[in-house]
Amino acid sequence: MADNTPATARTSASNYLPPASPPANEGNTRAAWTAMIIVMFGAVVGGVGFVIPSIPVVIAGVVVIAAGLVVGAVLRKAGHGQPVG
Any transmembrane segments, and where (predicted)? Predict the structure, then answer.
């Protein structure tokens, strides 16, 4: 079979390589795990508040989720997260 691909579309694999290799931790950082655990706890609190119709418990779950995101951002800024750039 003949290759009907235009010559401009045939390029080497090196054209698609990233400029640098990604970090070896694959996103498994202290900041990510801490944020994930806090956010999951907030989701459980909010879910319980949703099941037992209680607006204050649902709001508490949302507040815990927001706090988890802030804690993750602070830990990342402190150097416990994925390197930027």
Answer: 31-52, 58-75
